[in-house]
Structure formats: C-alpha cells, structure tokens
Design a protein that fits this description.
heterodimer; A: mainly beta; 11 strands; B: mainly beta; six-stranded mixed sheet; 0% helix
C-alpha cells in the first residue's frame, strides 16, 4: 500500500510569489491535514480537510489556503510569499480524522528567498 | 536576524539499553495521543497511539504509558538500536478539535 505522497519535495521561491503544494493520501483515507514545521515554532497545524470540506483551520493568515478534491487528494496554496514562510510543509492522512492513526508524507521543503 | 530554534531536550543512551522519552501535555480535554519518530530529512513516522481509556499500550519494542492525573505521557523503547536515533514527538488531540497538537520533541541519540 503506497504511503502519503507529497510533491514537489523541494521548492525555491521568491518573496511575493505564490506556491501550490500537493498531497496524495493513502488509498481509502478521507482526511488530510497540513502542518508547517520550522526550527523556531516546531510543528504547527494549518488546516484539515475531510470529504472536500475544510473542517478546521489553524492560526495562520489568509495567505494560506487549501482544498481537497473528490479523490481525497489535497493541495495547499501560499500566496504573497514571505521569508518566514520557509519551512517543511507536511501532509498527514487518516481514515476518517485525527482520532485515528495519522500518517505523514515526506514533506515539501519550501525556501523563500 | 536568525530565529531562535526550539530547545530540544536530548537523551543519549547506550545501544542495547532501554530508553524512556517523556512528554507533558496541558489540555485536560485531550483524549487521544500519538508518538511519532522523525529522522533527519523525513516526515514524522507513526510509532504508537493510545486513547485515554487506557493507561498502557504495547507495540513492537515500544510501550506508551499515559498518566492522566498528572497529564504525562511516556514512550519506552526496549533494547535501543542505532536506527532509533531520531527526534521523537508526542501529539495530542482533544475530542472536539480536528487537529493534532505537537510537543517540541526530544532528540534521542544512541551511542555505540
């Protein structure tokens, strides 16, 4: 069974640009969550999607958005990139939500220059 | 200027010894907990989970203990191996919230 797949693995963007990251969950999993990991703040929750609906959102500005498709694949978008957005962005999938086992992908390393 | 990184607690153990990694949580409403292992350059890897109706759960070479009275979680790794070297995170979930809240992590180093 394939694990959680995140693409791309690495990205370098310039301040002010926007970026889209993709996450394919484990087959059959309907919940996808996104987290930002930085040395200064650790792992912080961005948002969670279940059945194409955002069910919860963390304390991030509106520049961070996401969506989920009918096949449970999810994308997150960051607009007007700032240097502080440089981080490892992680996607986790679970069967029905965070109260079941949540499995992470390898992450997308975003560097904003 | 540079941001200050989180100060990760560190634990060094000899290969073959048992390791105990601790985690304190603050939300008394949390009732589901997960331990993750993260190796350098990789995403967190699920190790074991426990629900609040249990105080102990065992997996392969790992045991998680939950003490709800003092809001404390621990991960015990038996016969620690070099491949166990990583950062270990505990994560908690409170029933009403559809998110995991992560601790700052503990760096485990296994000495030969």
């Amino acid at each position: 069974k394939a694990g959680v797949t995140q693409t791309p693995r690495y990205l370098i963007k310039t301040r002010g640009q926007q970026v889209t990251l993709s996450c394919s969950p484990i087959s059959g999993h309907r919940s996808v969550s996104w987290y930002q990991q930085t040395p200064g703040q650790g792992l912080q929750f961005l948002f969670e999607y279940f059945s194409e609906t955002q069910r919860n959102k963390g304390n991030f500005p509106g520049r961070f958005s996401g969506r989920q498709f009918s096949n449970s694949r999810s994308e997150m978008n960051v607009s007007t990139l700032e240097l502080g957005d440089s981080a490892l962005y992680l996607c986790a999938s679970s069967l029905i939500g965070v109260r079941t086992e949540a499995f992470f992908g390898q992450g997308t390393r975003l560097t904003v220059v | 200027g540079e941001s200050v990184g989180l100060h990760l607690p560190t634990l060094s153990v000899q290969e073959g010894d048992n390791s105990i990694i601790n985690c304190a949580y603050s939300n008394s409403a949390s009732d589901y907990f997960i331990w993750y292992k993260q190796e350098s350059g990789k995403g967190p890897q699920f190790i074991i989970d426990i629900r609040s109706n249990m105080d102990k759960r065992q997996g392969q070479r790992v045991t998680v203990l939950l003490n709800k009275t003092v809001k404390h979680l621990s991960l015990q790794i038996a016969a620690t191996q070099p491949g166990d070297s990583a950062v270990y995170f505990c994560a908690e979930n409170a029933g009403s919230a559809r998110q995991l809240t992560f601790g700052s992590g503990t760096q485990l180093t296994v000495l030969p």
